[in-house]
Amino acid sequence: MSRTFTTILLLVLSEVVGIALGEWFFRLYLKAIPPVALSDFNTGSARIAYWLYGAGVGVVLFLWALLGMFTSKVSNAMRKPSSAS
């Protein structure tokens, strides 16, 4: 696989995980707030807010994974013995 394809796949998977986390927290919100206090507007705006929060978490997960990949690459490059001996 090419590096570009791997990076795009990592971004997509990170966003899917982030938005799934946002949906999970939205479900927790629905369980925590009494139905009397919920209106259609509150529910709709909370869902959008949690999805946006999840998208932000997905970006952070993506950047964290890129940092790990970069650190691994640098570590492997420093560990290789030089062939000029």
Give a description of the structure:
The chain is an all-alpha fold and 85 residues long. The protein has one domain (3-73). Helices cover 82% and strands 0% of the residues. It has helices at residues 3-32, 40-79. It is elongated and about 70 Å long. The two termini are 33 Å apart.
Share of β-strand residues? under 5%
- List unreliable stretches of 5+ residues: none
Beta-strand segment tally: 0
Tally of discrete structural domains: 1
Instruction: Tell me the major beta sheet.
Output: none
- Mean pLDDT, all residues: 90
Secondary-structure map:
Layout: H1 3-32, H2 40-79
Helix pairs in contact: 1-2
Brief overview, please?
With 85 residues, the protein is mainly alpha-helical. It is 82% helix and 0% strand.
Structural descriptors:
single chain; 85 residues; mainly alpha; 82% helix; 0% strand; elongated
